[in-house]
Amino acid sequence: MKKDTKQPQGCTNLKLRQLTRVVSRHYDHYVAHAGLKTTQYSLLSYVVKLGPLRPSDLARHMRMEASTLTRNMQPLVVQGWLKIGAGADARSRVVTATDAGKAKQAEAQRAWKKAQLALNEQLGTEKVAALHALLDDCIDLVAEGLDTPDS
Asked: Which residues contact 81 (CB under 8 A, 6 or more apart)?
C-alpha cells in the first residue's frame, strides 16, 4: 500500500509573500479609512502599547530592520502621530506616541477589527486559529535557526 506523503511544491518564500500581499491588501482596504497603511497601523500600535521606547527596541519587538523602521516611522512623525525625542544620553533616542497618535491608533484599531472579523468569516475561525499556530511555530523555529552560529 502506498503511503501518502505530500511533498511541498514550489517555493515557500514565494507562497508566503503571495499570502502576505493578499492579506495586506485586505487589511489595507479597511485601515485606509483611518488614513493609514497596515504597516503604519502596526508601528503606531506597538508604540502606543510599549512606548516610550528606543527605536532599536521597537525594531526588535516588530522583528524589523532598523533602517526599515526608520523609513516607516517618518510619515507618522510628519503627521504628528509619533515623536522622536532625546533618550537617556546624548546619543540615544526614544519614540513616543502623541495624543493625536493615540487617537489615530484607536480609530484605525476599529477599522482593523472589522478587517479581522471579515477575514475570520471568509476563511473560518478554525482555519485562522490553525494558521496563527502554524505561523507562530514557524517563526520561532526559523528565528531560532538564524540565532544559531554556523557549524
From this structure: 44, 97, 98, 100, 101, 104, 105
Angle between helices 38-50 and 12-31 (to 10 degrees): 80
Task: Kindly write down the DSSP assignment for every residue of 57-74, as one continuous string.
Answer: HHHHHHT--HHHHHHHHH
d(CA 58, CA 46): 7
Summarize pLDDT for 21-71 with one digit per residue, the tens. Answer: 999 999 999 999 999 999 999 999 999 999 899 999 999 999 899 899 999
pTM of the shown model: 0.79
CA distance linking residue 35 with residue 31, whole number of Å: 7
Q: What span, in angstroms and rounded, lies between the C-alpha atoms of 29 and 37?
A: 9
Sign of the torsion angle spanned by Cα atoms 135, 141, 147, 151: negative
